[in-house]
Write a structure and sequence with these properties.
three-stranded antiparallel β-sheet, Nucleotide Exchange Factor Grpe, Chain A, domain 2, 197 residues, three-stranded mixed β-sheet
Length: 197
């Protein structure tokens, strides 16, 4: 029956009977009860393997970076040094242009000029050496295509075939690398070089 206030005498029944909520324990995917011990051991071994590989890669990266930094320090000036070599060559050509007789008979002004050019060349070569660039003159050595560039052959029976008979242009090294090969004339027609050489 309805109450004059508009309320129902009977307490309201819930529309649906709710079932009680039963909580289930959360089972982790790698729970030892669910998985086997062998699977866990394999997973641990895989993780260890990945960690060791990552450590090895990082060590290799560290070594490679250190090597690249050292190479940059040593060989970073290669382009600049190649440009400066033209200046050294021109100074040498200027000195070679004055014959020995003219030097001996030169007046004091010319002698001072020649000495100034020699001093400038020595100073330039010293500055290059301080930065790891050194000049080499292979006269009399056996021809090596890795460090020499043959321009022509000359008949010279006094030296073994394949020996450098004349240096046209000196070579330069930077560190252990060739900055510029020496331009040379190679002897031909002489005795063969000894096999032990």
């Amino acid at each position: 029956m309805a109450d004059p206030d508009g309320q129902n005498d009977n307490p309201a029944k819930p529309a649906q009977d709710a079932e009680p909520v039963v909580s289930r324990p959360y089972i982790m995917p790698d729970d030892p009860e669910e998985g086997s011990v062998e699977a866990l051991a394999k997973e641990a071994a895989d993780a260890r393997d990945k960690m060791l590989r990552t450590l090895a890669e990082m060590e290799n990266l560290r070594k490679r970076t250190a090597r690249e930094v050292a190479d940059a320090r040593t060989y970073g000036i290669s382009g600049f040094a190649r440009d400066v070599l033209d200046i050294a060559d021109n100074l040498q050509r200027a000195l070679d242009a004055v014959p020995a007789e003219a030097r001996a008979a030169a007046d004091p002004g010319l002698k001072a000029l020649i000495e100034g050019v020699e001093l400038t060349e020595r100073s330039l070569l010293n500055a290059l050496e301080k930065n790891g660039v050194r000049k080499f003159d292979p006269a009399g050595e056996k021809f090596d295509p890795n460090v020499h560039q043959a321009m022509y052959e000359v008949p010279d029976p006094s030296v073994p075939a394949g020996t450098i008979a004349q240096v046209i242009q000196s070579g330069y090294m930077i560190g252990e690398r060739i900055l510029r090969p020496a331009l040379v004339a190679v002897a031909k027609g002489g005795a063969k070089a000894a096999a032990s050489e």
